[in-house]
Specification:
mainly alpha, 3 helices
Length: 86
């Protein structure tokens, strides 16, 4: 069985990655730049890891709650970084 914080980290990274892909898929120019996607992934993953490092996961109920929290953290971190850049 996976360790509880590992689930949170994996879900946060997955959420950040999914939001980066969503953002580039909705780009009106439809130009996929590997440099932009890689840069977006790096900042989104680092931002989501910074956010989950301050979360207190001792009170979280179970693995499903951790995965949901991680996905929300990953999406939120990438969304906030994207809005701050614009």
């Amino acid at each position: 069985m996976a360790d509880i914080p590992i689930l949170l980290v994996a879900a946060a990274i997955l959420g950040a990655g999914l939001n980066v892909v969503r953002g580039h898929a909705n780009d009106p120019s439809k130009q996929w730049s590997l440099k932009k996607i890689t840069g977006g992934l790096i900042t989104a993953v680092l931002g989501s890891l910074a956010l989950i490092s301050v979360l207190d996961v001792t009170n979280i109920g179970g693995p499903i709650a951790l995965v949901v929290l991680g996905l929300i953290t990953g999406f939120g971190a990438d969304f906030a970084l994207a809005k701050a850049k614009a």
